[in-house]
Amino acid sequence: MARVTLQTIADEVGVSRMTVSNAFSRPDQLSAALRAQILDAAARLGYSGPDPAGRALARGRTGVIGVVLTNSPRDAFADEVAVGFLRAVAATLADEGYSLVLLHSSERSDVDPVRDIAMDGAIVYSCAPRAREVTALRERRLPVVTVESAPLGDEPRILLDDAAGSGQAAAHLLEQGHRDIAVVVTSVDAADEPLDPAHRGRASGTIGRRLDGWASVLTGAGVVPRIVGTPGFDVDDVLRERIAAMLDDPPTAVLAFSDLAALEVIGQARDRGLRVPEDLSVVGFDDSPLAARVSPPLTTVRQDVDAKGTAAATTLLALLRGERRPDLTLPTSLVVRGSTGRPPVVAAG
């Protein structure tokens, strides 16, 4: 069967090729009756519409926005915070006629979504500035907005007030009477050792800001926290093993960089017979939907995930219109629940 084209439809209806194209892409240029006649002929001949690549070239935009994730899509969708962020981004973009595509690394040399997918701009979500995907985006000179990432250049940034939230969490533990406190993080290679400025220098942007908040409050009260970390960017096997080693000589409280990390600490503590919060207080960060559902409910630092996703999308849409918006820092706040309490009383020798 011969390939059906715009010209095929034009010949069938007795109009120009441009008129057929307008029936699909600029319907306001035709009468309702003529457009209906063209679409009926297209349906009868099995023609679904002009080639999307050609339409994008003609319009000067693809209608597609990319999102670069720290992790693979498989791992990202295990994190309710990332899912909520993507949901808010997708909803905001859809209202403006844009679609969302996830960009990720590929082990295949012939497939590189960041390099090959046609898009109008991208959102970089919690990625290191030297990540290969980020470098590829910058080489394409696409409009970019970064979210919870170190600055890439002069791209607009959406940030959380991480230091304020983590500082509130540290102050809460001090008020409860804790002095032996550990912090659990990613992007820092640390195996249960005293926190010092060198750790801060190795941390990613988000983790670094959270360390600033914890450290400023704790050290100001004369408490040097222990730091347990992994050089990776997620709760990986290295971090799990180091949490286990920390619990061989447990602190009385843990400040975790995320709710998922906090739940890992709680799970391992329970496997050892440690009670939360009677033997070990744990604080997370994010206030994911899971935080209120676990037992005991998790004390955590809340961020507004919907506001973060909406801000990222609207900032990028403004860039596409030629408008530059300033960096935006969203507030955080401590939510006290049942996973924290006073430290255990140590019996006199």
UniProtKB/TrEMBL annotation:
Residues 4-59 form the HTH lacI-type domain. It holds the Pfam family LacI. Keywords: DNA-binding, Transcription, Transcription regulation. Coiled coil: none annotated. It comes from the Bacteria. InterPro entries: HTH_LacI (IPR000843), LacI/GalR-like_sensor (IPR046335), Lambda_DNA-bd_dom_sf (IPR010982), Peripla_BP_I (IPR028082). PANTHER family: LACI-RELATED TRANSCRIPTIONAL REPRESSOR, TRANSCRIPTIONAL REGULATORY PROTEIN. This is LacI family transcriptional regulator.
